[in-house]
Write a sequence for this structure.
């Protein structure tokens, strides 16, 4: 049996994927708190287990800091954080990035002890059903996505993220909001990775006109789209609202392609996350996305439209 990648193992652990007799992956659906729709009040046991990991890591880091005789202010200064942020790490209220964990291990002379937590802590920052998708993003050679309600998480500014999270009903607590923002910002490493993956996004035009968080937030988001759209490995397209034909009427979805050519399809709506591993569904979703791209404005036309909307604010 071939060794599974971390993403495939993660997808199986999260979704319960099982192989049938001919080795094909079955379509799987994970029900639970939605990534964009989670209310925080209905956390599942798996999500609480993830929080337990973050708290245990924070306690370990605090123990090592005290052993070294460092105050939070001094420790934070060496890591580039305030004392209050260090306190949040130690109390499990914020999740440090992998680079921060590596630096903390070095400063505290932990000899790799903190780094042992790195993968678990990184995984714990996502809702359990999204962990497989988060792992797949790290292995993607191509990621394509069609969105109709909000700007894709990978493309969001921090202000836009906070505006969306503040609108959740029932309301999210501040700790959860901070965790979600940190996790979403960490995923943007995909834009800096080498070799660079191919990234393509089609956004419904209506998204560009919804002033979530106010006009200043929308203005910053549109400016960010223009900057990201100039990257050579990124294409952003807009689906005009006046299109009479749209192959994306079934809603938003993302297709991730791994180096081995296998495609995964992720979709989410109303608290239901679905990660499909059936090869046939991956091929069909990729083909559907190709049709959507052909129906949308070209990348050049799309950036011009975004500039026009920005200029009207």
């Amino acid at each position: 049996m071939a060794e599974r990648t971390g993403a495939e193992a993660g997808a199986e652990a999260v979704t319960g994927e099982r192989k049938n007799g001919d080795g094909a992956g079955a379509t799987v659906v994970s029900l639970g708190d939605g990534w964009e729709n989670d209310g925080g009040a209905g956390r599942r046991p798996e999500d609480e287990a993830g929080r337990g990991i973050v708290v245990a890591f924070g306690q370990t880091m605090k123990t090592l800091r005290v052993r070294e005789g460092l105050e939070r202010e001094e420790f934070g200064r060496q890591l580039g954080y305030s004392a209050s942020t260090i306190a949040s790490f130690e109390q499990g209220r914020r999740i440090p990035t992998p680079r921060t964990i590596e630096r903390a291990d070095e400063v505290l002379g932990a000899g790799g002890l903190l780094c042992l937590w790195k993968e678990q802590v990184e995984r714990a920052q996502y809702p359990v059903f999204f962990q497989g998708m988060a792992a797949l993003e790290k292995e993607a050679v191509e990621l394509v996505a069609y969105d109709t309600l909000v700007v894709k998480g990978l493309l969001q500014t921090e202000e836009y993220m906070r505006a969306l999270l503040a609108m959740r009903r029932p309301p999210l607590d501040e700790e959860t909001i901070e965790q979600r923002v940190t996790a979403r910002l960490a995923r943007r490493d995909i834009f800096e990775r080498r070799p660079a993956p191919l990234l393509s996004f089609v956004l419904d035009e209506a998204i560009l006109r919804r002033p979530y968080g106010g006009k200043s937030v929308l203005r910053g988001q549109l400016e960010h789209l223009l900057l990201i759209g100039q990257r050579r490995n990124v294409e952003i397209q807009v689906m005009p609202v006046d299109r009479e034909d749209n192959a994306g009427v079934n809603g938003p979805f993302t297709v991730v392609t791994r180096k081995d050519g296998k495609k995964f399809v992720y979709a989410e709506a109303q608290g239901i996350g679905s990660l499909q591993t059936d090869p046939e569904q991956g091929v069909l979703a990729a083909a559907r996305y190709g049709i959507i791209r052909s129906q949308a404005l070209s990348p050049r036309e799309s950036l011009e439209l975004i500039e026009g909307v920005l200029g009207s604010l």
